[in-house]
Amino acid sequence: MIPFTDLGKQYEEAREDIDQAINHIVSTNQFITGPETAKFEREFATFVEAEDCCATGSGTTALMCSMMALGIGPGDEVITTPCTFISTSEAIIWQGARPVYVDVDDNHQINVDKIEEKITDKTKAILFVDMHGACPDIDRLKEIATKHNLYLVEDAAHSVRTRYKGQQVGSLVDLTCFSFNPVKNLGAIGDAGCITGRKELIDKCRMYNNHGRKNKWTFEVRGINARIDNLQAAVVLAKLPYLDRWLDGKRRICQRYTEELKDYVITPQEPSWCHHTYYVYSIRLDRRDEFIEYMKENGVATNVHYLEGLHEQPLFKEYITEPLPNADMFCRTSVSLPCYHTLSDEEQTKIINLVKDFVND
């Protein structure tokens, strides 16, 4: 069976550095905050060319602290996308604000052309998502945000090391939120995340991230416990030197998929402005459920990342004011193929031939 992910092979490549990092944390007994977290924040900020970085316990808490730092609250509206994991909208409603959904475009990104019609005097921010390792036209998003005096927040859970017009994601907007869930391109061995962006906003994120305090004994605002633990920070740092090589391997596989499958299914497209990092390789085709079963019967695991858009979830139905047909279409027809960098040429060939055989059947 070809698994959808294979973290074991990735670990074997970086075993010596990861084990050394873990042993250091255990032997020094510094498990929460401390020098390893500070080192992570410095090095990751440099890695993505950001002013500053606040490490968090997950991508979800990164989003939550970002909303707090921007002062998002009851009565505010935040424009966002329905095609993403629940945490993107969850962070908005936890602040008592309202998510305002904009349908996606043909590349599964928020449809920038439809954003301005959703802006009201209650709109305070645009929270967009870099789907699958690509990003929307960020310059156009900046123009809209500047015109209407809005904050711009990037959910980059899929897009560490993605570049927009040569610049690193993480350095482009007010705040950018990353996830280091183990299955991400850069993963910890548990939940972890961070926020990068403007220093004055990152300082606020750090306060909300740590029970609302600026020092050990002074609590200034209502915060949460969203701190990263040193173990996760150390593991992510240990993997950092390997990431570009791993991503190059993924890109080669995904580009081969596209070249060989583009006449059979709808394949991901790389926008002209974007260096795609392929968190997942998601194709679109009819009879999606039949295809998943066919691949399983032939020894290949696939994955559906969003069976329904957030606008179909009971939690968010009260915020829906109009149909979102593209989001519905993507959720009905999208399926992801294995694309990790250790996938062999023979395994890639098998996957490609199975896709072709299914479509031709």
Query: Count of DSSP helices?
Result: 11
What is the number of beta strands? 14
CATH architecture of the largest domain: 3-Layer(aba) Sandwich
What would the average pLDDT be, to the nearest integer?
96
Q: Strand order across the biggest sheet?
A: 1-9-8-5-4-2-3
Shape, principal axes of CA atoms: globular
- Corresponding CATH superfamily of the largest domain: Type I PLP-dependent aspartate aminotransferase-like (Major domain)
Q: What is the helix content?
A: 25-40%
Instruction: Report the order of strands and helices.
Output: HHEHEHEEHEEEEEHEEHHEEHHEH
CATH class designation of the largest domain: Alpha Beta
Major pleated sheet: 7 strands, mixed
Radius of gyration, in Å, reads 20 Å
How many domains make up the 3D coordinates?
2
Could you please say which CATH topology of the largest domain applies here?
Answer: Aspartate Aminotransferase, domain 2
**What would you call the structural class?**
alpha/beta
> How many angstroms separate the termini?
22 Å
The fraction of residues in strands falls at: 5-15%
Q: Which segments are poorly predicted (pLDDT under 50) over 5 or more consecutive residues?
A: none
How would you characterize this protein structure?
The chain is of the alpha/beta class. The chain has two domains: 7-241, Type I PLP-dependent aspartate aminotransferase-like (Major domain) (Aspartate Aminotransferase, domain 2); 243-360, Aspartate Aminotransferase, domain 1 (Alpha-Beta Complex), CATH 3.90.1150. It is 39% helix and 15% strand. It has helices at residues 7-28, 35-47, 59-69, 86-93, 138-147, 199-209, 230-239, 243-261, 288-297, 325-333, 345-360; strands at residues 52-56, 77-80, 98-101, 123-129, 151-155, 163-164, 167-168, 175-179, 193-197, 213-215, 218-219, 274-275, 281-284, 334-337. It has a seven-stranded mixed beta sheet with strand order 1-9-8-5-4-2-3, with helices on both faces. Helix 8 (243-261) runs parallel beside helix 11 (345-360). The longest helix is centred in the first third of the chain and has 22 residues, at 7-28. The radius of gyration is 20 Å and the shape is globular. The model has no long low-confidence stretch (mean pLDDT 96).
